[in-house]
Specification:
Strand content: 15-25%
Number of strands: 11
Largest sheet: 5 strands, parallel
Shape: elongated
Bound molecules: calcium ion
Order of helices and strands: EHEHEHEHEHEEEEHHHEE
Structural class: alpha/beta
């Protein structure tokens, strides 16, 4: 098995070097970028994880994350300064998966990296082998959905969804971790041209969908609202 590849984006050479030696010692292949621009040049499908400093000269870590998210679901671990609490929220909103506050111990870094890689591999492994069975049933966490008919289950119990709810869920579940704007959701589920007035309609349907699939609809773990951007499906906390 080839080593997993981690891209470390950090302008402070000492820190970058430390992380490289540390992760290299754990058997990972480590690529380095000293700026956001360099990171975007290096990013490719072979990379399994990105460690991304928020404070970079030029393009910020947040911006880099947003750019990566345009076509990749690679897990992103942000490094933030402890004093910058708001950076965490910004980072997660931009599509980051986790963050670590500086200064961090190497043990903490290794633990986060391993947790993210494990979670990502579970998902990838399922996607490739297990997720879609011969009956066109997609499994993700505790939810299952048939992709060729309106059949949905949670913990093997059938859930009754309207056609629209089913279409929304099918769209999101097939692209976990990918953010869909309300416009994309509307045009795919309703198959009509989106206008701004459709927003409240979408919200109502997503709220109803949540009451059917979430344990706690007020605190959803499957369908996440990414503020100002849209919605994305997460595979559920139990996978983490
Ligand atoms: Ca920095």
């Amino acid at each position: 098995m080839s080593a997993q590849v981690i891209l470390v984006v950090e302008d402070e050479m000492d820190i970058r070097e430390g992380i490289r030696i540390l992760l290299g010692g754990e058997g990972y292949t480590v690529l380095e970028a000293g700026s956001g621009e360099e990171a975007l040049e290096q990013i490719n499908e072979a990379i399994d994880l990105v460690v991304l400093d928020i404070m970079l000269p030029g393009m910020s870590g947040i911006k880099v994350c947003e750019e990566i998210r345009k076509n990749s679901t690679v897990p992103i671990l942000f490094l933030t300064a402890k004093s910058q609490e708001s950076d965490k929220t910004l980072g997660l909103m931009a599509g980051g998966d986790d963050y670590l506050s500086k200064p961090f111990s190497y043990a903490e870094l290794i633990a986060r990296v391993k947790a993210l890689l494990r979670r990502y591999c579970v998902y990838q492994g399922k996607k490739q082998n297990l997720l879609l069975d011969d009956n066109h049933v997609l499994t993700s966490g505790r939810l299952q959905i048939a992709l060729d008919r309106n059949d949905v289950w949670k913990d093997d119990k059938a859930i009754d969804l309207t056609e629209i709810e089913y279409k929304i869920l099918a769209l999101l579940m097939q692209h976990p971790h990918q953010i869909f704007s309300v416009q994309e959701i509307y045009e795919k589920a309703w198959e009509e041209t989106y206008t701004y007035s459709a927003n409240s309609t979408i919200m109502v349907h997503i709220r109803r969908l949540r009451t059917k699939i979430e344990d706690d609809p007020q605190n959803p773990i499957y369908i996440k609202n990414i503020w100002g951007k849209g919605y994305r499906y997460e595979t559920g906390k139990e996978v983490y």
